[in-house]
Amino acid sequence: MQEKSIKENWAGRRSVKQWIALGLVIIGIPAVLLLSWQMGDRKYYLTSMLVLLCAVAAFWLSFERRRPKTREMVLIAVMCAIAVASRAAFIMFPQFKPIVGIVMICGMALGPQAGFMTGSISAFVSNFIFGQGAWTPWQMFAFGLAGLLAGYLCRAGVMTGGRRLVTALIGGGMILVLIGPILDTCTLFTMSSVINTEAVGAVYLSGLPFNAVHGAAVFLTLLILAHPMIEKLDRIKVKYGLMEAE
Amino acid sequence: MNRQDAFSGYSPQVNFIFYIGTVFFTVLIVHPAFLICSLVLAAVYYLQVRGRQGLRTIVGMSPVFVVVSAINPLLNTGGDRALFYLGQRPYTLEALYYGMALGCMLTAVILWFASYNRTMTSDKFMFVFGRKSPVISMILTMVFRMVPGFQRKARQITTARRCIGRMETGSSLQSKLLPSFAVVSALTSWALEGGVITADSMQSRGYGSGKRSAFSIYSFVKRDRLTVCLMILLMMGILAAVLRGGTRASYTPELLVSGYDDPWLWIGSICWFVFLSIPVAVDVVEEMRWHVLRSKI
Fold first, then answer.
1. A102 pLDDT exceeds 70?
2. TM segments (chain B) (predicted)?
3. Could you give the angle at which helices B54-75 and B32-50 cross, rounded to 10 degrees?
4. If 0-12 CB within 10 Å is exposed, 13-18 middle and 19+ buried, where does residue B116 land?
């Protein structure tokens, strides 16, 4: 009896959140773009930040409305915490950031949606430790995107735990050509008054060495950790019957 | 120096609305008066939150300002008052002003975030958003709790491995990196098993079987309500000034900054100044009241 009323309660909430998530993407993003087009001159940062927040919020809401099982929630929380805490294991290498690598592994093992959640949440939480700033929405989106893409590429059979070198190369390359430049775009929008070839070139070129180091860290993380960690996650899934379709 | 300032003691919603408004308008308005106002008050509030230590951070911001200002004319060649030429490219005064405005904006936002990191702690953030999305806030709460525990566990594993001679065996990069990966891997095994137990325990204690309540030590009292009303009024004033063109400012290709003969600029900048000085004023008033109370004894 009680259970039934709870279920109805959830169902009601589900549809509302579903509509909000859909509304954010279909109405929110174009509205922001239109508004900024009306405002004219140099609103790149504000516009892009609002668009990214809409995108992240849509993902979070659609996860929320799915009513994930307790074990799934805890598993994602554990993976986020590992991604954030993993830097503690590399104290001797302050520039070594394995966090996106672990996010990608999570996307590969648990699916694209869990990958996005892990990425965006761990970026958000790690900024509570290293400091929030204008870059937070960008990092949340970029890290989430890394997990999402890794999840889809794993489904397509391109990035798998078995093909270690290919997986690691794709992961490192993704940082170099996609995730790093997304983060550099944040710098571009906050620091430059005009968007022209010189400004774009200057920002992306100066970001290249950092992205290369970051990409190398992710490459190594995937090369060494992807196989054992995916095995562990699979084992947990089999052992306790997690994340299976009902 | 971890003095709790009076504004941090207000309801988290008040803090959050203040920071949203501050960062939004600082990024939106490029009028020099507004930017300088934002920068100065950001610095004052940061000093109030951090005490004397904050001075070093603020001084440390000045290279950022100089670099952003100086670089802008190299990228943006709009404007006709050239200071000098670099090859064929003019280095114009207008673009330099634009760069200074951007540098001002950037340093102001960085300083506001510096005090944000002090005042909006993670529990306050959870209080603002927690009840609106129970699943996400549950995950976030768990992650906030797990991270310090995992870091501690990672250090324990490292120590244990060092005891049996499995850490830092050589001097090459490879022999230094590989043990660290082993630590992460061991941490994962431990954490996943623990996570499943946590989940089962949550389930058997009835997680998800009813409407979630949320613990909080924050209350929304009269002064919070008054502050929110004041902030909304001031933000409407600023928005009106923006829409009326009182805050118009463009630098390149032509310097067009609305002057103080425009009444809307007066309205906008007074609203902006009052809005930004809320935390500082609240703190100063509190301090004065404390002195008065103490002197009566």
1. yes
2. 16-47, 54-75, 95-116, 226-244, 264-285
3. 150
4. buried
CB B35 within 8 A of CB B26: yes
Q: Under a CB-based contact definition with an 8 Å cutoff, are residues B151 and B114 in contact?
A: no
CA B78 remoteness from chain centre = 32
Domain boundaries, chain B: 7-122+221-296, 127-204
Backbone angles phi, psi at A159, to 5 degrees: -105, 110
Does a cis peptide bond (omega within 30 degrees of 0) precede residue B253? yes
Distance CA A73, CA B199 (A): 8
B84 DSSP β-pair partners: B91
- Is any Cβ of chain B less than 8 angstroms from the Cβ of A32? no
SS3 content of chain A, % helix, strand, coil (to 5): 85, 0, 15
Is residue B83 predicted with pLDDT exceeding 70?
A: yes
Q: What number of C-beta contacts closer than 8 Å exist between A and B?
A: 186
Of A243, A44, A221, the residue nearest A146 (C-alpha): A221
CA atoms of B204 and B186, how far apart (whole Å): 28
- Helix or strand or coil: residue B249? strand
* pTM for this predicted structure: 0.85
| B contact test, residue of A42, A43, A74 with most B CBs within 10 A | A74
Q: Does domain A69-240 have CATH number 2.60.120.10?
A: no
The mean per-residue pLDDT over the stretch B99-122 comes to 89
The alpha carbon of residue B62 is apart from the nearest alpha carbon of chain A, in Å, by: 15
Contacts of A64 in chain B (CB under 8 A): 133-136
Q: How does A159-173 read in b/e, with b if 16+ C-beta sit within 10 Å?
A: bbbeeeeebbbbbbe
Do β-strands B82-86 and B256-257 pair in parallel, antiparallel, or remain unpaired? unpaired
CA distance A191 to A183: 13
CA gap B224, B227 in Å, rounded = 5
Q: Looking at chain B, which residue has its C-alpha nearest residue A38?
A: B243
- How many whole angstroms separate alpha carbon A115 and alpha carbon A96? 21
At residue A4, does pLDDT exceed 70? no
Higher-pLDDT residue of B242 and B275 is B275
Q: What tokens were used for A215? A: 């990409």
Interface check for A245 against chain B (CB to CB < 8 A): the answer is no
Which of A67, A124, A193 shows the shortest C-beta gap to B102?
A: A193
